[in-house]
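OP here, attaching both records as promised.
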Amino acid sequence: MRKEFEVKLDGTEWEKCLDDAFKNKIKDVKMDGFRKGLVPKDIYLKKFGIESLFMDAADAALPILYRNLMDENKDLEPAVMPTVDIKNISEKEIVVTFTVVTKPEVKLGKYKDLKIKKANIEVSEEEIEHELGHLKEQFIEIKEKEDGTVEEGNEVRIDFEGFKDNVPFEGGKSENYRLVIGSHSFIPGFEEGIIGMKVGEEKELNLKFPEDYHAEDLKGKDVVFKVKVNQISERVYPEMSDDFFKDLAIPEVDNEEKLRDFIKNNIKTHKETNAEGEYVEKCLETATKNATFKVPEEMIMEEINRMYNEFSEQVKLQGIDIKQYLEMIKMDENKLKENFKEEATKRVSYRLVIEAVVKAEKFDVSAEELDKHIKDLAKRYGKEESEFLTQVGGRDFVKYDLEFKKAIELITK
């Protein structure tokens, strides 16, 4: 629902905004006969006019006007920041209209005792073996084979060139390429075709690119790869020796049994974390489906923009500007944002339902509980309490977060 509110600022409050705007403007003003930043106000106004201060003064006035609006309408719950239209601005006053999109009314359905079961966590021997293999991979020795042929698991150095209709295709050629047989790095049939070859042997492989291959000009196409084997090496896995366990440097793990237990516990912990996340997700999804409400499009767009900005920061950490990234994946900003819409809608929907549960249950966070939570969080992040509160948005934000947690705990009981 959208509501319009006309709000006015005049008198000494508006005069102060104009005066502050003048003090800010005058810092960079140069006029004959006066030092920079020291032009008297009456001289400035005579030359530039009071109108030159209006926009800066309006910027200073808007937070005051919005705060006044919220103070006068305690029950108003804006869904997003309002849009602003300046109706009148003069030396005496500023009048603006705030168009406020309010949060929808959420009619809760069943949100407690949802009878959703958590996944039963088990760790198989195959999973332990798989992870053990990964650990051993870190200590593999590569030993060149003097004789023999290429076998599964061998590491080879090869020259190859691919042809389509007897013409070399782009990206299909390399020299002395390192390939582990069985890694499935190439299209089906390539690695299998090298098995049995000897050093110095050359061979032609008649293959077909998969129908879902990423390059349009090669999808489903018949090709020929000319391959030469330059070197064959064996990948020798380490023995379960004292030296191996010393190299692993895992505390209190000095034999295979302890290592397998360590791996099993790690897998179990990881699975339990994932299962807990999936369980919470299912509970929130069910509680949301049981509720009745309509999410304002403005809330979805705000969440999409937040997700886009977060994604841009993640990309930047990899040394790539978001514009460069979009060029690389051949996608524009709007299309990428559209990809966020489903997740953004879900996030906003969950948030609205959780807020409704907080209201329905009348959750209360005591001052002592809030103080303890702030202290614990500040300690966890290595911050002073005042610095932590400034960064997260103050005590109200932490209180809101605690209420959220209480609601989620209730939904997932």
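Record two, same layout:
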Amino acid sequence: MIRGLILFIKVGLIVAAAVYLSKYPGQVSIDWQGWRIDMSLALLALTVLVVTVVVVVVLRAWFGAVHAPGKFMTARRGARRDRGYHALTQGLAAVAAGDAAEAKKLARKADGLLKDPPLTRLLAAQAAQLDGDDQAAERYFEAMLEDKDTAILALRGLMMRALDAGDSAEARRLAEQAHRERPGAAWAADHLIEAMRADGDFDGALAVLTTAARHKAYPAASVKKRRADLILGKARALQRQESFAKALSLTQEAKKLDPANPNAVTMAARLLYRDGKPGKAARVIEDAWRVSPDPALASAYRDVAPDRTDLLAQVKRFERLLAFNPDHEESHLALAEAALDANLWGEARTHIGKVMAETGEDQAAPRVCRLMARLEEQEHGDVEKARVWLMRASENAA
């Protein structure tokens, strides 16, 4: 649009000049070194225009001839680079597809076209791994360590090789190096955290998590859950050492970080019960039940009862628990199980029925089917019906 407008203006100016000169032709005389030239102004203007056009054409042709070899070589290098990247892309696709021979062929082609080892070494290493040539893969990965842009990929590749070879010490060393060089690499932090957890070094694992979180290795929402899980692991270790007070303190810290974590809640409740505080233990579970009922919480709630052997009292306690979250199926299943323990068949059937009303008998969860099998056998001694429910539990679990 703009180019068309500019062309229109140029043509308009030329036409206007031609019309003006036709009306006022005038004369021009040039006297130079004994030469005299007389011509009209229009002829002079036309001559200047023709000479200008010729000079421009000649200059463009000359510049084009001078720069043609360079442009040709640039275009050739560009085409070669495009073919190299295409081969690199196809090679990575071949690795993903598990075609080792094609991947190796394309790696050689990409290397020949790109002449850029850091770009092609990863493909060559992956192709060698796929072909079972571990020594070649290791050579490529070690070469990649020399380039800062590919060093982190090399460390990951060498770590995976060490894991495949069962060399956990070398895998950990490589993960530590990767974590130092790239604290935001989640894979390195994950491996280090799990290795330290396995060694019982929960403080080290928490330090790695803190560094990785600071470098945005994990989504912010998951960091608290990860930290709570590690603190809970440390608390379990202290519990095994019979450091119950420290274990309880850490468990409560984990519970604050992740209030819905049933492991933290149940461990805190059992430690409180052990400390002679069954009321506090029950309240911890009741608070968690309001948020997220869980079978592990129900099991712990039975364990922290003042008198575990009083089955009718247990039913009353689970009726209280149901009141904290009356619409959740876990509330009804927990009460149904307590009722079964107390031989209150009618109450058990009522609450199991409320759960099955949502899904129907055919789609009932395996746990619900097992409760029904237990109910039929305990209430009526009907082994055949119990067997049908157990078969349905097996089918619905598949």
